[in-house]
Structures are given as structure tokens and as C-alpha cells.
Amino acid sequence: MNLHLKEFSIPQEILKWGDSQPEHQRQHIGTHIDCYNLSNIELPSEINVKVIDVRKLDIIDVTILENIKIKENSFVIFRTGYLEQYGYGSEEYFNSKASPYLTNELIDKLLDLNTKLIGIDLSGIQHGKNHVAIDKYVENRKCYVVENICNLDKVPSDFKANLKWFQLKDATAIKVEIETI
């Protein structure tokens, strides 16, 4: 099962907008790793994944990790249900005022657990002015944020995945492909 958006899943108006942007900006369309500090991403091609269901939560805080085992060097994905419910590219999907977000305390806990990737089925783990700042903070701790993950309703909460990514010079986002094993 693929967990990345494929081009046919992306609305034409977003693809058209991307065509009018510099190549590095287009990388923010679809499923991608944010790397605003322009780090050279080094990740394993195979990784343990934990999906945490946070549907119906507006604020996703550290209490969500109670009774959940997170493996070191893993990929933790939060399923808010937004991509499933509204579809990528919709006004509701990109409405950051209504979108759930991860608290700083939760992010710090994940970083302390040596998580390699933090993923979400939204356009960010935090929104507005905090979006880029939290992505840089996470990146400084050798972890990365993966946005716009799909098909979380079709996978178990624990599995392994293969990763492939395509890093362009000076891009602040890296296209990523995520396939279950």
C-alpha cells in the first residue's frame, strides 16, 4: 500500500500552480519531507512505522502517547482523518485555523524517543507562523516532518515501510514515496 499522494490524486489547480513556481517550491506539493534548513537527508530505506489515530482531537498532546510503545529510530504518523474526509487540496484541508496540531511537548517527547520521522495526513504538524519554525526545530534534532500522508485508513497501526526520496539542491521540501512492506 502506498502512503504518498500520486499525481492523479492531486487536483489539477494545485499542479497548475506548481508549474508556475520555481522547481524547489513545487516540491511542497503532495507527500513530502520538509527540510527548511536544507539538510542533506539521510534516512534508512526501510523503517518501522507507528500510526496513531487522533481523529476527533483538535489539540494533539503528549497524553496521546500513554500506553503506546514507540520504537527508537521509527516513523510516527498521526492520522487526523482530514485527508480522508476532505481530500487533498480542498479548502477544508488547507484551513489551518480548524486543523488539528501537535503540541510542542508532544514533539519534544517524540524527539527524546529518537524518532526519525514525524508524519501527518495534513499540511503540517503545526500551522500558520509556527509551521516553518517547528519544522526547522525538528530538523535541527535530526528528525524530519512528512506532510500529506494518505491511505492511513488502509494500514495497521504497526508495520514496516520502504522510503524513497528525491532531494533537489536548495529545495525546502523533498518528495517522498512511502510503501508498506
TrEMBL record:
Name it: Cyclase family protein
Q: Which Pfam families match?
A: Cyclase
Q: Which domain of life is it from?
A: Bacteria
InterPro entries named among the record's database cross-references = KFase/CYL, KFase_sf
